[in-house]
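FAQ

Q: What does a record look like?
A: Structure on top, sequence underneath. For example:
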């Protein structure tokens, strides 16, 4: 018992992973249900609805702002079934967005780390960004 604790303490101290942690590493495979354009349909923070986000089959994420002004694609990865997007802000640091699939993967939920409120995104049939009214 002490040996296991010692091994785990050493692994943490040396920055290595235990076999369990190694199995929980991010996956690079994009699940078939995810690629496409998702639209915000609910926002508990009462922001404007209609925001679009896009996930591509090759692991890219694109935020489409009002009038389809799009940011440059950035990578995302899957971890324990969630979608992790990390954007590095120059001269600041990383900002992460985590989407969790719900309702049989027909919707994605995002919880604001600032307000703890949720936004819900639903997959659309869109293949390109279209200006929202």
């Amino acid at each position: 018992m002490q040996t296991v604790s010692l091994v785990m303490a050493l692994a943490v101290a040396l920055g290595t992973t235990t076999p369990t942690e190694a199995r929980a590493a991010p996956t690079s495979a994009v699940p078939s249900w995810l690629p496409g354009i998702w639209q915000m349909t609910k926002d508990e923070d009462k922001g404007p609805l209609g925001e679009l986000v896009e996930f591509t089959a090759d692991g890219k994420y694109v935020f489409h702002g009002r009038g389809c002004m799009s940011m440059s694609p950035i990578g995302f990865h899957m971890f324990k079934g969630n979608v992790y997007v990390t954007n590095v802000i120059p001269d600041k640091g990383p900002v992460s967005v985590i989407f969790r699939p719900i309702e049989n993967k027909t919707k994605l939920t995002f919880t604001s780390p600032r307000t703890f409120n949720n936004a819900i995104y639903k997959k659309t049939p869109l293949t390109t960004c279209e200006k929202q009214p």
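Q: Is there anything notable about this one?
A: Residues 1-24 have pLDDT under 50 and may be disordered.
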